Amino acid sequence: MDDPVTTLRADTDHGSAWLSRFALDALRERAAAADEYDAVAALARDLRDARPSMHAVANRINRVMADAEARTPAAVAERAAAVREQAETAAEAAAANAAAELDGPSVLTLSRSGTVLDALGRADLGRVSVLESRPGGEGSEAAERLARRDDTPTVTLAPDAAVADLLAAKPVDAVLVGADAVLSDGSVVNKVGTRTAATVAARAGVPLLAVCAAAKVAPAGTTDPDLEPRDPTALYDGSAAVAVHDRTFDRTPPALVAAVVTERGTLDAAGVRSVAETHAAMAAWDE
Question: What is the mean pLDDT of the chain?
Answer without folding.
Answer: 95
